[in-house]
């Protein structure tokens, strides 16, 4: 049995290579790169942040629950703007909980104590409201987690009526499923909900300490979990999210950790221990992973802050690289990784011109260097990282039509 150490990050084995290949490969656990926020009501401060979402540009939207507002930050945690106040008018909130962003950038908020879901433009302009208090069709009792599927349908975890409610893009009621209980397909205060790339609906069934997987029509597919501290067990799971490869991430609130699973629910890894230091948690609630599974952002609830992690492999490259005879250009290692000011890249290439470039997650080129390779021996290049913001970067080597890449995490 794996036990927690006093380190803030727990080593793990990830089932699948970084580049999406299938072979199993030991990799580094997610690396803490950013913390922002403190207790309060000013810009950039929080009172019990409950959830967080990431838009296409890497901006972060945070549900600031007890301040009854949503705050927007850039990818480095710099405050941009906010909207919301205590009330029940359009654009106001009463203890909001969940958030999600659709493919067009619109923002959906679970307005928990107003028993409704509100939809906003990316700048916070109210567009739509659906739901009202009750247990009838289209009604909600304390909506928490929210998800939007590819068709634009809105799925809501109706926390205190123990069911999932599905609305059409225009807010019209479509269907609901679930009832109170611990049998398969039933719920005890479902809190988080997400839709994976295959269209399955995953629910963090909080008081049953499990995750349940359904079709989009509400038919049960599988479930896993149970109460406990062992890997794959939970103490009030709050949120569940997936990346485009189907990997699942669950915030395990009172075990003060995040757990990662395969799409089938097999345990992969965990990280986090109780505390207030970087990489530690005090009852993490909402969290979000980007589509690549490279950036994970967590609402560290009782610490009144947001923490950001990036996934980095031990070598920085896929273990499924073809042999040199078939692909002479390769990146052998990046060290150290994560790095602060300088990283050394070791690579092999055919004789001739070689270009190395470093890109951020938005695809912007941050560094570029050219080399003339004289032989096929492995070579080293030093990258000056002092002008870069903390985060995850892609190193790309190109020689003619051949390319190789690696991930690099920059920390401060």
What's the structural blueprint in terms of helices and strands?
Elements: E1 12-14, E2 25-27, E3 31-36, E4 49-54, E5 60-64, E6 69-73, E7 79-83, E8 99-101, E9 107-111, E10 116-120, E11 126-130, E12 143-148, E13 154-158, E14 163-167, E15 173-177, E16 190-195, E17 201-205, E18 210-214, E19 220-225, E20 237-242, E21 248-252, E22 257-261, E23 267-271, E24 284-289, E25 295-300, E26 305-310, E27 330-335, E28 342-348, E29 352-359, E30 365-373, E31 379-384, E32 391-399, E33 402-410
Antiparallel strand pairs: 1-2, 3-26, 4-5, 5-6, 6-7, 8-9, 9-10, 10-11, 12-13, 13-14, 14-15, 16-17, 17-18, 18-19, 20-21, 21-22, 22-23, 24-25, 25-26, 27-28, 28-31, 29-30, 29-32, 32-33
Care to describe what's here?
The chain has 412 residues and is mainly beta. It folds into 2 domains: 280 residues, TolB, C-terminal domain (Neuraminidase, 6 Propeller); 81 residues, Sandwich (Immunoglobulin-like). Strands 3-26-25-24 form a 4-stranded antiparallel β-sheet, with no helix packed on it. β20 and β21 form a beta hairpin. The N terminus is likely disordered.
Mean pLDDT: 86
Number of individual domains:
2
Separation, N- and C-terminal Cα atoms: 34 Å
Helix percent reads: under 10%
CATH class of the largest domain: Mainly Beta
Strand percentage: over 45%
What Rg, in angstroms, do the CA atoms define? 22 Å
The 3D shape can be described as globular
What's the CATH H-level homologous superfamily of the largest domain? Answer: TolB, C-terminal domain
Structural class: mainly beta
What is the strand tally? 33
Total count of helical runs of at least 4 residues: 0
Q: What oligomeric state best describes the polypeptide chains here?
A: single chain
- Main beta-sheet annotation: 4 strands, antiparallel
| Major sheet strand order | 3-26-25-24
- Residue ranges: pLDDT <50 for 5 or more in a row? 1-27, 313-327
The CATH architecture of the largest domain comes to: 6 Propeller
Named CATH topology of the largest domain: Neuraminidase
NHL repeats: 33-76, 84-123, 127-170, 178-217
Keywords: Repeat, Signal
Signal peptide: 1-26
Protein name: T9SS type A sorting domain-containing protein
């Amino acid at each position: 049995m794996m036990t927690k150490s006093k380190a803030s990050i727990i080593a793990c084995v990830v089932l699948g290579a970084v580049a999406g290949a299938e072979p199993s490969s030991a990799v580094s656990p997610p690396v803490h790169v950013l913390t922002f926020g403190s207790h309060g009501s000013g810009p950039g401060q929080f009172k019990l942040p409950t959830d967080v979402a990431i838009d296409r540009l890497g901006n972060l939207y945070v549900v600031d629950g007890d301040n009854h507002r949503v705050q927007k930050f850039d990818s480095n945690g710099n405050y941009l703007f906010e909207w919301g106040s205590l009330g029940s008018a359009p654009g106001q909130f009463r203890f909001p909980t969940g958030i999600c962003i659709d493919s067009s950038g619109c923002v959906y908020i679970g307005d928990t104590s107003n028993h409704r879901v509100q939809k906003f433009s990316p700048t916070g302009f109210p567009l739509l409201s659906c739901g009202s208090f009750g247990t009838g069709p289209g009604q909600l009792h304390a909506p928490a987690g929210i998800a939007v599927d590819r068709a634009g349908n809105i799925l809501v975890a109706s926390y205190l009526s123990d069911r999932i409610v599905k609305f059409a893009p225009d807010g019209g009621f479509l269907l609901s499923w679930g009832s109170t209980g611990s049998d398969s397909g039933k719920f005890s205060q479902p809190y988080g909900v997400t839709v994976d790339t295959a269209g399955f609906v995953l629910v963090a069934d909080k008081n049953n300490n499990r995750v349940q997987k359904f079709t989009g029509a509400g038919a049960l597919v599988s479930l896993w979990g149970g109460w406990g501290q062992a890997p794959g067990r939970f103490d009030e799971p709050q949120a569940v999210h997936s990346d485009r490869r189907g990997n699942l991430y669950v915030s395990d609130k009172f075990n003060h950790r995040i757990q990662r699973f395969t799409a089938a629910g097999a345990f992969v890894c965990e990280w986090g221990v109780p505390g207030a230091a970087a990489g530690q948690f005090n009852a993490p609630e909402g969290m979000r992973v980007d589509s690549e599974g490279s950036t994970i952002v967590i609402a560290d609830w009782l610490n009144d802050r947001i923490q950001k992690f990036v996934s980095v492999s031990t070598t920085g490259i896929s273990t499924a690289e073809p042999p040199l005879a078939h692909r002479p250009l390769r990146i052998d290692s990046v060290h150290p990784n994560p790095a602060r000011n300088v990283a050394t890249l070791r690579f092999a290439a055919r004789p001739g011109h070689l270009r190395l470039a470093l890109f951020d997650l938005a695809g912007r080129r941050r560094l570029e260097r050219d080399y003339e390779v004289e032989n096929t021996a492995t070579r080293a290049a030093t990258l000056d990282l002092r002008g870069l913001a903390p985060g995850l970067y892609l190193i790309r080597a190109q020689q003619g039509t051949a390319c190789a890449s690696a991930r690099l995490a920059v920390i401060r």
